[in-house]
Write a structure and sequence with these properties.
The chain is α+β, with helices and mostly antiparallel strands. The protein has helices at 2-20, 78-87, 100-107, 117-123, 137-147, 167-190, 198-205, 208-219, and strands spanning 30-35, 38-41, 57-60, 93-97, 127-129, 152-155, 159-164. It is built from eight helices and seven strands, in the order αβββαβααβαββααα. The longest helix has 24 residues, at 167-190. Bound molecules: zinc ion. Zinc ion binds at residues 28-29, 96, 98, 134, 158-159.
Length: 223
Amino acid sequence: MNDIVDIRAQLVKWGKRLVEKGLVVAAGGNISARVGDTMFISPSGYSISEAAEEDYVPVEISTGKILDDFPLKPSSEVLMHLRCYRVRPDIRAIVHVHPPLLVGIISAGEMLYPFTPDAVALLGKPAVLDYILPTTDELARAVEEKVKSADVIFLRNHGVVTVGANLREACYKAEVAEDTAKSFLAAKITGTLRLFNEDELEAIKGLSSEQYRLEIMRKMQEA
Ligand SMILES: [Zn+2]
């Protein structure tokens, strides 16, 4: 029971933060976290900065059933969240937001590759999907395929999905993705962006300092 109280409090905290950071506006975006076979997902129609602890909708992951005759509807992207949890037992949190610069860049047909050590360590190799109608099972299936091998999935003309071992990790990935988009634009305006080669990417992944930081982030208990 304490886990559930705690996870609802975390969802409220990180939901507010994502809006404060400008990663999503109005009633867009959705977040969820898993406790056992239950996911708690933001309610449909609410801004994630306004949803209260008791508004997060409990859904059984194995069946997709909404628990406890809950009065609110889950986010319309509920299928996408369910499919991700089913295919990746290691993830415990999912963030879907619409970061404006990132969305602009990928919707213009560009790919946003991590090009700083921090971004490489956190984002890995992001996947990208061409536009698919939101809230459909077609989108949920496409994201399911990509999340098997990527923690960050760019959705052209739409947004981004990030996953993690906890909400902190999933939210940090969304924040770093949008920061990378800002630096990408600065580089494009200033000159030619240099991307890392394979050797440089491997060397970053092998850094013990980066691995240590990832471990700490995944273990960190929420206040
Ligand atoms: Zn969306």
